[in-house]
């Protein structure tokens, strides 16, 4: 029993099915053999003994026709009366030949047919032929004299032989019928046994499935359900075939792992709750710190600038009143003091502007960048006129954002491009846009002094300068403001270091869905890339400075423009308008 319990479910089922299959195959083989025998017996009845009985009766009729014909000829002497005799003999010969073909499996019948032939031949030799010959030669009286009781008895022997032949044929037919009944009965018994085997096998299969499959699985499911309801410490034990025992062990291993993971998750949750509490405290600290910073911003924008204004004002008064009265070094010291106070004021204003980005918000709206460029052109008009600069832009998109911040963004880029110009070369600045995926890539291209690739990432760092303040004035915070505005709008900004001349600064802004869907459905087309401030969004051959449609120009950042302008209103420069070129004399 121990060895049987170690059998796998597959082995048990295969063994049971094999035993049932062997029994059913054996029964089927027996049924086939019995069916063959039964078919043989039925063939003997239908195709042998049955036709033999009929032919035996016809044989008797043929012999009677011969006997009647001989007697009629002896009475009448008419040769025509012998016709049935001749026909009877021929029919007798055919019937005997046919019967011999059917009695190969019945030697007793072959013997009986031989006896009938012998007696019929003896009757013809001793009775029929003498009567016919005597009647032909001596007349009917002599012929009738030969038909005696002895002649009749001799024909009765022939008839008796035929009757005995029929009796033997009947007995053979009865035996075949009994064989058919016996084999049919055995076939029925075998079928009943086969049905019994199937029923017993099915019952055993049901009982075995209930014992080996259903009950163990039900028990395992109940235990798993207890675990699923939250009792993760409940051990799972299996029963039944080895497969189910191993399955239970695997499920229990999974339960232990889940319980371990849950314990770790519980500990992690506790740690997270602790971290959240610490973060909450830090958030409160940050809120308090932000309030302090706002207070500091207020002080910096009002209280702190008041003494700076006094210092600057009195230094300027000293400079105007005592200019030329003191020595040259004193005038230089006073100039240093005035410049320092003014630079401190600009630095404070720029820091305040930088800190307010994203904190003092008016909310996102749909902004037409073409209108923004019009405002930028107005703000930078003085600087462009001073530098004889040309500002152009192509067709720009509508995006969601804050219009004041976007105006500040483009004004800083344009002012930087004008500030960092090459000597004796009129500045050219071009703004273009193109759709890349689900973002608008906006470029600011100029023909300025350019920037080395190794400094491309440094220019967006606050207070980062690549030039002395005497060469290019400013606080070094302008491009940091640009980067913060772009990131606040969900984009990114970089310097295109592959530009051959000048600087190209590119930045991305999320596109509206109504702009992305048609572009996704349209085939890709090559872009027309402008150079030296030519409009890149117009068709080929379009006059420079006119806004067009199509693929926007390449863009990048101004070279060596880490010193962002202090604001477009402070740069003494001049330029061109957007949708038309304006020359400043």
Structural key phrases:
rod-shaped, 14 helices, alpha+beta, 585 residues
Radius of gyration: 63 Å
**Major sheet characteristics:** 6 strands, mixed
Shape: rod-shaped
Helix-strand makeup class: alpha+beta
Helix content: 55-70%
What order do the helices and strands follow? HHHHHHHHHEHHEEHEEHEEHE
Low-confidence stretches: 526-585
Query: What share of the residues does DSSP label as strand, in percent?
Result: 5-15%
Output mean pLDDT: 77
The total strand number stands at 8
Rounded to the nearest angstrom, the distance between the terminal CA atoms is: 114 Å
Question: Counting H and I runs of at least 4 residues, what is the number of helices?
Answer: 14
Commentary on this structure:
64% of the residues lie in helices and 7% in strands. It is rod-shaped and about 205 Å long. The chain has 585 residues and is an alpha+beta fold. The longest helix has 80 residues, at 149-228. Mean pLDDT is 77; it is low at 526-585.
List the helices and strands and how they pair.
Elements lengths: L1 H4 L3 H68 L6 H20 L4 H32 L1 H7 L2 H80 L13 H60 L3 H17 L6 H29 L8 E4 H11 L1 H7 L2 E4 L4 E4 L1 H17 L8 E9 L2 E8 L31 H11 L4 E3 L8 E7 L2 H9 L34 E2 L28
Parallel strand pairs: 2-4
Antiparallel strand pairs: 1-3, 4-5, 5-7, 6-7, 7-8
Helix pairs in contact: 2-3, 2-4, 2-5, 2-6, 4-5, 4-6, 6-7, 8-9, 10-12, 12-13
């Amino acid at each position: 029993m121990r060895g049987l319990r170690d059998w796998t479910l597959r082995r048990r089922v295969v063994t049971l099915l094999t035993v049932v299959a062997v029994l059913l195959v054996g029964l089927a083989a027996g049924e086939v053999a019995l069916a063959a025998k039964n078919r043989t017996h039925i063939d003997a009845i239908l195709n042998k003994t049955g036709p033999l009985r009929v032919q035996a009766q016809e044989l008797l009729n043929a012999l009677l026709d011969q006997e009647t014909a001989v007697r009629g000829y002896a009475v009448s002497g008419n040769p025509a009366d012998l016709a049935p005799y001749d026909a009877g003999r021929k029919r007798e010969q055919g019937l005997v030949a046919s019967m011999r073909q059917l009695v190969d499996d019945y030697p007793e019948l072959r013997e009986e047919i031989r006896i009938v032939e012998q007696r019929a031949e003896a009757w013809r030799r001793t009775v029929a032929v003498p009567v016919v010959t005597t009647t032909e030669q001596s007349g009917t009286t002599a012929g009738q004299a030969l038909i005696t009781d002895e002649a009749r008895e001799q024909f009765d022997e022939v008839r008796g032989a035929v009757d005995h032949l029929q009796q033997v044929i009947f007995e053979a037919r009865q035996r075949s019928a009994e064989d058919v009944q016996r084999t049919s009965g055995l076939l029925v018994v075998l079928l009943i046994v086969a049905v019994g085997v199937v029923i017993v096998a099915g019952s055993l299969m049901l009982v075995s499935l209930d014992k080996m499959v259903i009950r163990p699985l039900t028990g395992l499911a109940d235990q798993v359900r207890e675990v699923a309801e939250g009792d993760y410490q409940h051990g799972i034990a299996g029963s039944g075939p080895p497969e189910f025992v191993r399955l239970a062990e695997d499920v229990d291993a999974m339960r232990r792992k889940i319980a371990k993971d849950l314990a770790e998750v519980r500990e992690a949750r506790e740690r997270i709750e602790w971290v959240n509490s610490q973060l909450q405290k830090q958030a409160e600290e940050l809120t308090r710190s932000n309030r302090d910073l706002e207070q500091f911003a207020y002080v910096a924008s009002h209280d702190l600038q008041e003494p700076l204004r006094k210092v600057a004002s009195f230094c300027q008064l000293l400079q105007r009143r005592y200019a030329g009265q003191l020595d040259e070094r004193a005038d230089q010291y006073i100039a240093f003091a005035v410049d320092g106070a003014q630079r401190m004021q600009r630095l404070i204003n720029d820091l305040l502007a930088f800190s307010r980005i994203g904190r003092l918000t008016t909310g996102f709206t749909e902004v037409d960048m073409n209108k923004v460029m019009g405002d930028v052109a107005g703000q930078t008009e003085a600087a462009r006129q001073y530098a004889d600069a040309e500002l152009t832009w192509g067709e720009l998109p509508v995006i969601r954002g804050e219009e004041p911040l976007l105006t500040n963004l483009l004004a800083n880029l344009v002012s930087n491009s004008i500030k960092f110009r090459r000597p004796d070369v009129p500045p050219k600045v071009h703004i273009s846009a193109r759709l890349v995926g689900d973002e608008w890539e906006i470029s600011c291209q100029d023909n300025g002094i350019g920037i080395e690739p190794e400094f491309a990432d440094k220019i967006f760092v606050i207070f980062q300068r690549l030039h002395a303040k005497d060469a290019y004035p400013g606080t070094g915070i302008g491009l940091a403001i640009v980067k913060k505005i772009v990131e606040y709008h969900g984009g990114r900004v970089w310097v295109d270091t592959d530009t051959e001349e000048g600087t190209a600064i590119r930045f991305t802004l999320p596109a509206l869905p109504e702009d992305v869907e048609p572009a996704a459905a349209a085939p890709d087309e090559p872009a027309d890339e402008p150079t030296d401030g030519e409009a890149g969004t117009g068709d080929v051959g379009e006059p420079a400075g006119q806004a067009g449609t199509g693929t926007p120009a390449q863009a990048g950042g101004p070279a060596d423009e880490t010193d962002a302008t202090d604001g477009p209103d402070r740069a003494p420069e001049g330029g061109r308008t957007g949708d038309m070129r304006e020359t400043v004399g």
